[in-house]
Structures are given as C-alpha cells and as structure tokens.
Structure prediction request, 1024 residues.
Amino acid sequence: MKKNNLYLLAFATMIFIFSCKKDNSPTPVTPKTTKGVYTLNQGLYGGNNTTLTYYDFTTQTPVTDYFRNVNGFGLGDTGSDFIIYGGKTYIVINNSGYVAVASTLNAAFLDTISFKNAGVNRGPENIVFGAGKVFVSSTDGTVAVIDTATLTIQKFIGVGSNPAQMTVSGNNVYVSNTGGFSAAYDSTVSVIDLNTLTETKKITVGINPGSITVDSSGNLYVVCTGNYGSVAPSLVKLSLTTNSIIKTVDSAYGTIRYYNNTLITTGGYLGAANVGILNVSDLAAVRPSFVLDGTIIQNPYGLDIDPATGDLYVGDAKDYVSSGQVYCFDKTGNKKFSFSVSPGINPIRTLLIQQ
Amino acid sequence: MPTRHFILLLAIVVQPGMVLFAQNKSDSAKALREVIVTGEKKQNPYTAIVPVQSLNHEALQQINAETIAGAAKYFSGVLIKDYGGIGGLKTISVRSLGGLNTGIVYDGISIADAQTGQVDLSKFSSTFVQSLELDQPNPQQIPLPARIYASASVLSFSSNTFNTTNFTKKKWLAGIDAGSFGLWQPYAGFYTPLNKNMVLSANAEATWAKGNYPYYIDNGMFSQKAIRSNSDIEAFQGELNLANRFADSSVLQTKLWGYSSERGLPGSIIFFNDIAVQRLQDNNIFVQSRYQKKFNPFTSLLLSAKYSYLYTKYTDPNFLNNAGGLDDRYKQQEIYGSAAVSHHMGNYFSFSLSADWASTHLTANINNFAAPTRTSLWDNFVLQFNKSHWQLNASILYTLISDKTEKGIAATEKNKFTPAFAAGYKSNPESPFLFRFFYKDVFRMPTFNDLYYTYNSNINPKLLPENANQFDAGITYSKSFKSALGLINISMDGYYNNIKDKIIAVPSQNLFIWTMENIGKVQIWGIDLNAQANGRFSPALKWSVRMAYTWQKAMDVTDPSSAEYKNEIPYTPEHSGSALAAFYYKLWTAGYSILFSGERYTLGENDPSNLLPGWNTQDLFLSRQVPFRDFSATIKGEVNNIFNERYDVVHYYPMPGRSYKLSIIINNL
Prediction:
C-alpha cells in the first residue's frame, strides 16, 4: 500500500470516528419469532415513546422497541392497550389517536386505523374482541366496532362518558364509563349486545368505574375509583343474570383480573403497591400478597394472566419515568422469570404470542 | 408570629426617623438636596463580590431577542426552557436549580406568580429595557427589599425611563420590526420632564406573529415536512412611569404596567396527531411605587409597594368532558409592601434591615377549587464589612408563609431562617484580580399548582418547601489598556449546589393521577466562564466581544437503587455557551452571535433513546445610522439561525430555522 493511501485511510478513519455520535437508534435486531410474549410499554405522555418489547422464551432475551426495529418507525404517544386476535396484533395508541395493526408473528406493520373525528382525537383507550369483531372504547364516549377483514371502523356505538375498560361475557360487551374528564363522574357500566351492536342498557355500579372483569359463572367485577375525595374507592360484584349488585367492599384497587375463582389485583391510588389475590365469593384477601417467594415489585402496573396455565405477568412501572420490568409468576405465586423492557417505560400489558 | 413581624416593620419605618432626628442640624436640607440620586446603582460585573452578568441596552439591541427570555440565553449557567416561536412559553433555570428558584425583578420590585411559581419571560419585551442583569445569588447593594433575597438567583431588568439622573431633556423613540413567520412589532415611547422635579415617560409595543415556521417530523415511513400551526400570538404591552424628586432629594417612582396577549399553544409534536387548538389569554397589570430617601450620607430608606393582577384564560375546545371543552379562568391578585433601611456605622461596617409582606389570592372557575390565599412575610438582616482588601456580606432571611383555602385542606404554615454569606478579596485596590466566594441557603415554597391543582391530582398538604444550597468560588480579572485592546474582563466561578426535598410529580397507579412529593435530591457541579473585551483598531473602527461558557454536571442522587441514580437530570447539557461580537465603523455596526448547547437527555434515566442532540444557532446583523437634523434613524437587517439548524430545546417542541428581520427605528436619543 502506498503511503498516500495510508494517509487517506487514516483520514477516512478519523472522519468516521469524529462523525460517530452517541448511538441514538440501536441497530435493528430482528430475531426469529418463536413462542414468547409482547409487552406494550406505554411511554410517557408527550414523549412519542410507546414501545413494544418482544421476549423470546427460547433465547430468554427481551428486545425492546421491537416494533420500530421491524418497521422502522415508532408507534407514537401513550399506548394504552393491545390484543392479539386472528393472527393480528392491534395496538391502541391513545394520544396519537389510532390503532396500529401488525402481523402477530413478526410484528410487521399492516395498517393504521385512525380514531379522529373531523381531525380531533377520539382518545382510543381499551380494546377487546368478541363474535368475530374487535371493539375499541374511546374517551369521546364511543365504542368502535372494527371489521377485522377490512381493518375499518364499521360503526361507533355511543356509551357513557369517557369509557375506560371493557370485558366480554356471553353475548355482551361491558364498558365501564368513568366520566373522568368532567367534574361529575359517571357511575355506570354500558352493556353492548354483540348481535345488534347497540347499547342495550346502563347498569349503575358506583362512582368512577374503571377496571372491569367477569368470572365463568356470570358475575361482573368493577373497580369504582371514587372521586379522590369524599367518595372512597370500592370493589363491586354484580350478577349478570339479575344486573344487580351482590357485594360492595371498600377497597382501592387499580387493575383486576379473574382466574380460577380468584381476582388478582394491583393496588389502587390509595392501596398498597402490591399484587393481591381475592376470593371471588367474599372479595376478601386469600393471603396478604399473591407473590409468595419474596420477589419485590416496586409499582405493579400491567397485570395479565395466561388463561391456559394461570401464569401471571406483572409489569413493574418502577417510578413511572424509567425503564420497567416484567415478572412472570406461576399460578402459585412463585417467580418463573423476569425481563427488563429498557428503555421501555410503564409496561401496561403483556400477552402471549399465539395465532 | 405576625405580631413580631409587625414590630420589626415598625422598627424599620420608625428607626430612620429617629436617626434623622438625632442628626446634627448642620446636615442641612440644602446639602441633602445636592445628593445625586440615580435610579439604579450598577455594579461592574467583573468587580462584584458575587457573580453578576449583564447586558446593556446596546447589547440587547444587537442580539436576536424580542423579549428578555431571548437575551437571558446569553448568560452563563442559564437554561431558558423555550417551547419554540415568539408565542412559546419561556422560563429560566439558573445553575440547574429549576425554574422556580429564580427571582424576577423589574425596576427594583419582584414579579411573582404564586400559581406556577415561575414567570413566563416572553411577556417582557426587550425593546425598552435599559439593562438586564443576572445576580448569583442576589444583588449585594443595600438597602433592598427582603423578598429579593428569597431566591437562589435574581434576574433583574430596568427601564431607561426610571433613570432620574437626567431630568432635563425631552426624548422619544419609535420603530417597527418586521420578520419571518408573520412578525410585526411596532413600538414607541417618550420621556418628558413635566417640571424641574417631575418626569413622565410612557412606552408601548404591539406584537403580531404567525409563528408558522416549517419543521420536520422524523418517524420512519411516516416522516414528513410540516408547518407549525396554532403558534400565533397577538400581544400588547405598555407602561407609564412617573418620577418625582422632592425638595429633600428623595425620589418617588411609580410605574403602571400592562400586558395583554392572546396566543395559540401549538403543543408538542405527537406522532399521528397534529391537531392543536388550545389557546391562552393573559391579561396582566401591575402598579408599583418606590420611595428612596437618603437621610444623610449614612442612612437610606427604601419603601416599595405593589399591586398586581394576573388573569389567565386557557381553552381547549377538544377536551372530551361533558361541558364540550375546557375553559379555565384564573385570577391572581397580590398586594405587596416592603420597607428597607441601611446604615453605615463607623468606617467599615454597614447594616441593613428589611421587612416585606405580601398577600396573594387565586380564584378559578373550576369546581371545588381551593381558592387559596397566601400570606408571606420576609425579614432580612444584612451586615457588611468593607476594609481595603476585604469585602464581606452576611445576611439572614426569615420567611413565614401561611395559606388559607376556601375549600379543602390548606398547606401547613412554614417558617424558616436561611443564611447567606459572600466575600471578596483584592490583594491591593489596584490589583486586576478579585477573589470571591459565596454561600447561600434558600428554599422555594410549593406553588399553588403544586398544592391545590385539582385536575387529576391528589392534594398533598404535607408538601414541604424545596431546599437549595449554593457554594461558589471564583476569580475575576479586569484591566484597561491603551492599545487596540482597550478593556478586558474575565471571570471564572466554580460552584456546587445541592437540592433537597425537590418537589416532583409522582403518578399514583395510573399516568393521569399525580401526587406532588418531596422526594428529589440533586447535586450540581459547574463552572461558569465569562469574558468581555473591547477596544479600537483605529479612531473610526471599534470592536467589542463577550463570551460565556458553562460546564455543568447535575446529577440525580435521590435513590441509589433507581435507574436514574447519578444520571444527569433532564435537559442539562454538560457544555453550553454563547458569544457575541460587534464592530463599529462610523455610522455602521455589524455583529455576529452564537448560542450553543451540547447534547442532553430528556429523561432522568439517561439512555441513548432519550438523548437529544446538541445544537448551535448563529445570527448576523448589520445596521446603519442615518442622522437627520433633529433626530436619527437606524436601519437594521438580521439573519437569524443562518445555517438553518433544526433543533429542539424541549423535546418535540421544534424551534424555528433560518429567519430574517428588518427594523427601522427613529429617535432623538
């Protein structure tokens, strides 16, 4: 090699070194999709940092911002919920006002479903499926029905104020109406008929209903958050055959999930930051904590159960502004594994990847 | 406690009278009348025993700064949180202590906002500002109102109309600025003696800007070029000043100031959602008076009073509540009074006592709003020692703050003594070097928003004040020459600050419900470097240069087990600075300025994914004076951000790229 070429090489190397900034976007890693989980990390409001983590059971490694790695763009701002249904993953991005649809196995982007009403964000929040349709509740008081073949919104069903969460039981979708954007909270659960796709009734449950779930014997459980003042939070159990309240207990819970005659809970805004387990008959704690092996979770945020195995996935939001962690416990309350979703913030939901 | 305060206040008001009474009658009123009273006694920034930075009127006109927010960016240690465009909110944080620890003082009296705790600096036009000054931790001259001592640093500005040295000449000024993105800014002012001892001045300015500058959304296949929308502003401000000089040479200065604006809040860029319709309306008015009297060469009195009214209206027609949108209106009123006295004793000692009182009331059209009233008392004692090599200032501030609410729980009463100390040393009076040191302990009260904000937050009445300690050691060099280099000033200060009980919003169980808690601890190490030089190459060609550089390491030391531990706090670049150069040739002036910031993180957990790249903006201007018989005109052209740098100061709030401005000013100054 001539001397000049060496100089040139040295010069080129120097240019390369000097032009290297701190790595802003990690080099794309696209692992083969095998059986694993996706975790949706909400990010911070206004931060455009909603991310999807892929955790591979075989390699036992998490890849955060998997969606961006695969598709080359970020999901947007404040992801609030997602489902895996019919080979597709539907990700609800609340502050960006749309639902991203991706192929489940490889997270490849398929389409966007916009939630704008004359340009104004409807505030899509929660998503469920039933009777071949996908339902999305939005802050503007609607539940959208999505046609899964065309990925378009078939119709909007008017419900109560600022609906939050939904659950499906029998022939109905139950929607908790918070009214959280107004001074006077809502206190109802809307019932949507899956055949007629209309709201058939509203059941009064208590001030500011939020997390909602059903058991296998026709009962509905609703967390009523109260008004952060004079009305304390409560947990309400209703019979869906009579649409009447069976039991109300004064307890603060955040999210509730049903599994095998128990309710798994996270602490509410007044409650302790732990994962609890309640007996569905009297809504009393089965034991002080669901977790038996002493695993410490700073701030349980996401809560999901694999109905087949009873495995519980807990998203730890830590201090809500830094990287979260996901813990998987078996149904007896012992940790199976955990993974970091760094730099993902506020892991709100973890779902098994399955067709 | 208030009784004790009242006695102190009484003592201050009455005591100088007693001193005067005790004075020898030979200190005749005639002699007193000869005392020259100047509006503001300026310290030389490079000979002060605490770090002082200032920009005079000339420099303010040379930089691209419509408001004092733009000008304060040129100071070292300063971060202006700029949300972009002329209408964007701009707040100041000095030495990483946060926006709520900086006092803002206009013509000697504090401007406060108890609701947010920080003043939006974009409300104050720089057109008529005579000088802008940043004091760390506070000005050292006496007497001063006690409230000025209650901040970690003080940004003060003064209007030229308050300078009472010249009572004779009628002056006027009028001009218009036109610039990119729909900027129109006409202004006019005058200054006229009403009689031998009374001066009236008035000025007014209007600002219209569309703020529709282009920016780029960077998000893979959804990337796009866009134009900033809902970023327009319409603002009017004006003031009326009256200065009276009495037979005993005492001076009474009264200012009536008003500001009214209506602006769009463009919000942060949200991927896939570009609608912004929030609007903000501000109507502010204040009237303030200052009375200064020198009883004799040793004893001075300063009385200050102020009434201020702040009306804020925030609307969001797209907010999804039952009322079909948000229309929040806040009214804040404050009555403030201060009495301060200083006295020289013997050859070396001086002392000063000041006592201030303020009552602030906030109302809102919001359901169940607490409608708090805050009564604040500040008592300050300063002792100064001044002897050849040494200058020592020690002070202690007592603060008592109590809140009452019409609804809900009020915060518990807080009171505290906080000390400060400053020292300067010169080996001999002619030495170009000055060594200096200061220590200050200060706290900030939780704001009304911290305590009583009802939307989506839990009220925490147990919230404690946030404490900040500051240590600074520095050296300055100041020397004049008889050469092309006429004057050079250099200062270097190293500092260490620590914040305890930092007030942080913590979400409780979901992201929409927040509680304010005293959980933060921050350690800040830094170095500020300032240099200034001027001179002349030839009798016709003059030059001046100033530079500021800051090195800073601000670390979160709250919780060793957290991911943020020993990470840099958000938006704190390690390196930042500015430079400004101007050349004067006959009737021409040309200038160049640069602002730069190194990379910084947007989140407390420093991760490459939230690293915001560094930036620099460079501006050029050229102006020419055109003299006429009775007045002169100045025509100035500017190219700002000449390299069209695309950058965010606050993430997802894009700043304008290259822009142009043309100004025509006529005056008889």
Observations:
- Helices of chain A lie at 3-19, 66-71.
- Chain A touches chain B through 68 residues (CB under 8 Å).
- The mean pLDDT of chain A is 89.
